[in-house]
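Bench notes, afternoon.
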Amino acid sequence: MTLHIRLQSQPWHLFSGNIVRAFLTASTGLDGKVAARRVMQAVFGNRTEFDFTNHCAGPNRQATPDGVLSRIEALSGAVVADAFNLPDLDQEIKWHSKYARQNGIHVSPTFMADGLVRSVLVSRDPVEQWEAALQ
């Protein structure tokens, strides 16, 4: 099985665009896949540090994009702030958005197998359930 991760920025998650850019930024370095995985694990493992209460309030209202990047770096050990300004990074972000749009993807996670959206699969399902659904 080959797993491809496509990123879906969700505007109701107020830091989503910055965090998606940080994931992609991490992937541009020498240890790209490893660094990107560390950044994803840091964000997903500490999700409450990046969330807003009701998608609009709470302590993160005072945070800045640079503050979010500093938090990501501290949690992941990966340097993302330096490459965050890469001028062509927006093309990668646009590719992920276009890919999602053309496939009718509006939420995360959305699972695809063999190019088809599999709406019966969700992230909390055990891998064995994914395997059974894909056979």
